[in-house]
């Protein structure tokens, strides 16, 4: 045998070497030999290096035998990680643990020249959701370990939650009402709507036009010259209807948009009557001449709702005032 590049190779031309009794020599990388005997009978005896057994039975890795220069025994190098089904995985691969969606294995190399290592990772789910969200677990047939936070309500600027159908005044965006609405695919969303301003009469004097209390809309403070429907400031319509029913009080907690009333000037006069030998008066009042039915839901003290309908004027005219009847042009409260 001879050595080439640190490996033993057979040398057919190697000449025979004679050793004297008591001499010791290295026979390749795996044997240490010596010559012993007496009375003309001599023989070579050798001690051989015992190499460790192969490591193929270690289930977590795939091994490859590697020849080591100037060494007798081969070394076994990890060349792949194995999963529970004996599939090989290379560096960078990650796979799930069978039957456990929240655990995974990874095949890594801790350093450029280091050995492969199979590590197990436990997934920790974050189920801390915001106030307007709730945590939803993944479907049982899903491969996902963790659920997700699903929006179930709206969140206002102050961090308070509101359910679908509720509305509130924005504390940041001036003159806007916020409505909590259901949006397909997104859950509840906050929709901002500018305050609905009443229409200004076309002949309102400029010195009678002022801003409303919220500084959102122009309003006319002059009484209308013509008897006609006039839209009421929407902020003034909250709570105008009140009903007592079965021991509960029901009222409209939300404002009513496009709520109108009859308002304007009608003729009135007082003149002397020779027939009566006295003064007689004639007056006319601005009253509805045509109306439409509107329906709203009132909120009751027992948290129920009460369906309520009322007649709203859509046209007005001056009609004779009847004796003793008073026409209150202020917003009414009604009891049923």
TrEMBL record:
SUPFAM superfamilies in alphabetical order: FnI-like domain
Q: Which cysteines are joined by disulfide bonds?
A: 262-316, 266-318
For this protein, the record's SMART domains field holds:
CT (SM00041), VWC (SM00214)
**Membrane-spanning parts:** none
What are the coiled-coil residue ranges?
none
Show the PROSITE patterns listed in the entry: CTCK_2
Which Gene3D superfamilies does the record associate with it? Cystine-knot cytokines
- In this chain the CTCK domain maps to 227-322
List the InterPro entries: Cys_knot_C, Cystine-knot_cytokine, VWF_dom
| Keyword annotations from UniProtKB, A to Z | Disulfide bond
Name by which UniProt lists this protein: MUC5AC
What species was this sequence derived from?
A: Hemiscolopendra marginata
Q: Give the organism's phylogenetic lineage.
A: Eukaryota, Metazoa, Ecdysozoa, Arthropoda, Myriapoda
